[in-house]
Amino acid sequence: MDEAVAVVLIVAVSTYAVFAGADFGAGFWDLVAGGADRGERPRALVDHSIGPVWEANHVWLIFALVVLWTAFPEAFASITLTLFVPLTLVALGIVLRGASFAFRKSLFRTSERRPLGAIFAFSSVLVPYCMGAVAGAIASGRVPAGGEAGDPWSSWVNPTSIVGGVLAVTVCAYLASVYLIWDAHRLADDSLVEYFRRRAVVTAVAAGAVAFAGIFVLRSDARYVFDGFTARALPLVVLSALCGVGSLVLLLRRSYRGARLLAAGAVASIVWAWGVAQWPYILPTSLKVSAAAAPSATLTAVLVVFGIAAVLVVPSLALLYTLDQRSLLPEESVDSQRATGASTPAS
Amino acid sequence: MSALSLLGGNVLAVDPVPWARAQMAFTLASHIILVPLGVSWACMTLVANWRAIKREDHDALLLAQRWSKYMAVTFAVGAVTGTVLTFEFGLLWPTFMGTWGAAFGIPFAVEGLFFFIEAIFIAIYIFGWKRLRPWPHFWTGVPIVLAGIGGTLSVVAANAWMNEPAGFTLNKAGEVVDVDPLKVIFNDAWPYEASHMLVAAYLVGGFLIASVYAVGMLKGRRDRYHRLGFLIPFTIAAIATPAQMFVGDTLARWVYNNEPTKFAAIELVPDTESDVPETLLGRIDSDGNVTGGIAIPGLASWLSDPSTGTSTVIQGLDSFPADERPTTREVNTVHLAWDVMVGLATLLFLLSAWYWLAWIFRRDMPRSKLFLWVASGAGVAAVLAMEAGWVVTEVGRQPWIVHNYMKVEDAATTNGGVWITFIVVAAIYLTLATTVILVLRSMSRRFRRQAELVDTDAPYGPRELPSERTQEEEPVGG
Asked: What is the pTM of this model?
């Protein structure tokens, strides 16, 4: 049963990566979009595109944390004890990011929007970096089990964590650019399609390069997981690479719908590969999934909740995404600002 | 790295327990202000929305639409401040989570479901005004209300479990080896605590929103729009308040029977005895002498169990070992918080009574300026009452984090840097609170400016576009 709950956990983490990752990446593109004039249109697209969905996507993180602490309490306690600093940064970054995004959307003056936008964009990069570093800390065996704290700094400032952090930021940016192409395409904005297509190609190559460099880092710094990646998890690694290359090819051929699917596939399969690579450990190599697992009644409860989620939440999410993709959820207050003639409209 | 190592090392390390408590209390107290809005505002918005469609009421429609835009801001801030709490369970209390996560976590797994539903449908509702048809759009709001109720009931189940832990078996080493999930969720304290908080969410949300419109009316904005903006939330609050008196009273009697330590702190009872006076305000010192305040003879005993009247015996603080009950300072805090909660709730009850009497005798809300003055303070009063209530239950449980099983000091992280995160968190949250208020005010000003310039906002389909004609021809309410 602990295997089944571990699968639920990986489903939650990989779904979070594929959906919320793109929302973080959109913040990255907001950060590098340039001055208020030059960056106005890409930023408007970012607002438009993540506005209705980011909160729902964010819930996957809550769900993953809850599954972790309920089903594998010892692992959760060890992770939060050792990785106090990066996880605090994640929590604060999430607050700053969500709040500044909501505030910015509700304000129309450039002078008010600019600092909020800067906070939103900066924290959109900080959070995935820290999450990637946390993943690196776990994968490289720097989080000890048994109520003992690992090193508060070197646990997440080390080669594997740096690769994890940089990879997370790059992958988020890549996902976001691919999704944004599709949204620009939907809104028939050809110049923005081209704008994000160029960026998607660059970040696809960059993500591939970071992942490739990561192989060598893992080999010397995280041997157990490296062995897993190159043996048990190899099919998933290959699948991820194929999806990545495939999406790049489709981007070059301007086939955006397929590129979007393959990009998501590349990210999801690398998260799955990570899970398989460190199996049977939840904290390599000090805590096994089976040893960390809660009593079976608790695991059953988590599986039941997940089952209900599959019946209730998945169709609701599908409804949200469908309405969004059919442009039935337009920006909430586009007209109001035009009516008042306020400066610098949001979109 | 050298500066960084200092932080992690011993130089700046300070005992984390008081700081962890302070940070948890501060972030919870901040988040809880947004909770009533998240739970009850959607319901009020739907009342306005329903009226708008049924009676083709333009003011109600405008109100519902604007409320949903404010809600978008408060919900977002509520979602992210709630996320901080999720992290803090581990960051501040890793031993607690490691030991009890298998039981304590279950209500949160259920809550996760409700949070999903809430986040999904709030997005559809808020963003759906322009392009969805009226009734389908209205119905997308209903799951938000239901999820708000379900979410409240499940989160409070976790807190109630800390007061009244149940549904687990420990081995000799003190590890949780078996769990009964249903007993964890439906623990003995749950029905009382959960209903108390659920009613509080409607009470506080109602008074809070109504108070904003009361201020507007005092400023001379006596139009129908403001009147509706006042009446809908105030009516809900005025229904919730008498209900809360009943729920709160039942809960207090349950605490008397089941959490005698907390009850002794609430009523400031040093020694076990009958004929215990109800002391309003007042303090207790470390020798158990109660000083100051106004003592109403026998009332605490009588309230605890009216059937035995003033002869009802209340267990005193002295009957519990000193290290298993709140400290003197904590007792005084609990007692003061109790008085604040009950005092403010009584005022809100009188205000609600005034409102209902005016409706009964004059078929209208009270017309006097005094009523609006008091009503404009009711929002803050209701928030304070709710905060005080949480102080009672949380401080009253001290020194325990899991009552009778684990103490707070044994649950905390060993990270010496918590004092730093506390200061950073406090600074960020204070800035956040200021910004929320500024943003909401700025939105309200913009809405007013806009109302002067254009006559109609355009929900349910922009009317000027021929391509959207089909939606316009859809009869309102059809």
From this structure: 0.90
